[in-house]
Design the sequence.
């Protein structure tokens, strides 16, 4: 029966509760330390902006903390696994459970269950909170901690090529046909790349095709004459697909929105391998919390009095951190096109699942 995989109800609750408390404690410690170190470097930049006060520092902390929680939650599960199992080994609890007829997998079962719960919470937390915090913080950092943009999906300092011509914008906001550029400069260039005319405007809207500049100033380089234009359409070759390409930030978009961005880019014949790998990693990343108890399990077995408990803890930690190194390397390879997106996101997970299971079976089962 499936329930035979778990120890008794009392022991399951005991192990699960102890493991969960240690995850929360380790995560809280890591986030507080790392957030304080981050604030040491950012507080000066935030307060250097006129009008910013301690309230903006707290705002930065509230936006940065979810990112740190998301990034270091799997590390917390790994460290909590090692702390929990090493302590139980030191107190001969593991020996007692094995003497009662429990296998290593049964001892780990409550920890794996908590890891699965943590993975589900992590996925929901990333989708609902981390993506929004990342979008807001990125937009705020793009304006160098000035007023937070109302459009959290706004981009700053964007440019688009229309043949030899160049369209520059200080900010890009809105979506689709409602996209708006502000602080606009258009360079009309000849085939040799020399500027023939420069047009500036406070605002440009998508004219389908092209971009409509209102109340623009035109400067002719050859004659050095300036002219006031009520309205002019420029850069007719700059399409919405190019505009949407500038917006895609996989870390700031939930799965549904990222899927739409990938479909739009694929329809425009743009390369989407990197985004597809990150799409899959939004699922495989949280599931690493299930993997950590298996990789750190080596710390909980063996005789504590043999003097090798510390060595086993180091081995468990090394296995866990090796997973994160390989995971990041695989994502990087996927970004460069070296791995298919699906393989880049899932290969490290299944590789270390087999490694952890092999180590456990060969040493304890």
Sequence:
């Amino acid at each position: 029966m499936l329930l035979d995989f778990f120890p008794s109800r009392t022991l399951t609750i005991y192990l699960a509760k102890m493991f969960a408390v240690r995850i929360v404690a380790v995560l809280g410690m890591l986030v507080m330390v790392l957030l304080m170190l981050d604030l040491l470097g950012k507080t000066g930049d935030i307060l250097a902006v006129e009008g910013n006060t301690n309230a903006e520092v707290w705002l930065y902390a509230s936006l940065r903390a979810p990112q740190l929680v998301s990034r270091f939650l799997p590390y917390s599960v790994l460290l909590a696994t090692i702390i929990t199992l090493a302590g139980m080994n030191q107190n001969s609890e593991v020996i007692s459970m094995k003497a009662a007829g429990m296998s290593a997998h049964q001892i780990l079962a409550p920890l794996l269950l908590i890891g699965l719960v943590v993975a589900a919470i992590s996925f929901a937390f990333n989708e609902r909170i981390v993506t929004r915090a990342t979008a807001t913080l990125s937009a705020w950092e793009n304006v160098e901690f000035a007023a937070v943009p109302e459009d959290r999906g706004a981009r700053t300092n964007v440019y688009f090529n229309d043949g030899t011509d160049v369209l520059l914008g200080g900010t890009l906001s809105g979506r689709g046909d409602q996209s708006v550029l502000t602080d606009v400069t258009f360079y009309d260039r000849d085939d040799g790349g020399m500027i023939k005319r420069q047009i500036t405007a406070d605002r440009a809207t998508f004219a389908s095709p092209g971009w409509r500049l209102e109340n623009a100033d035109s400067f002719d380089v050859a004659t050095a004459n300036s002219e006031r234009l009520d309205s002019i359409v420029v850069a007719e070759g700059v399409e919405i697909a190019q505009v949407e390409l500038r917006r895609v930030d996989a870390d700031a978009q939930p799965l549904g929105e990222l899927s739409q961005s990938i479909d739009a880019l694929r329809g425009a014949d743009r390369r989407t391998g990197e985004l597809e790998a990150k799409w899959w990693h939004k699922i495989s990343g949280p599931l690493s919390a299930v993997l950590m108890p298996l990789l750190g399990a080596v710390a909980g077995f063996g005789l504590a009095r043999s003097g090798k408990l510390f060595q086993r803890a180091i081995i468990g930690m090394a296995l866990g951190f090796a997973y994160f190194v390989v995971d990041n390397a695989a994502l990087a390879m996927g970004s460069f096109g070296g791995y298919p997106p699906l393989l880049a996101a899932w290969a490290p997970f299944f590789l270390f699942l087999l490694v952890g299971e092999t180590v456990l079976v060969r040493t304890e089962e």
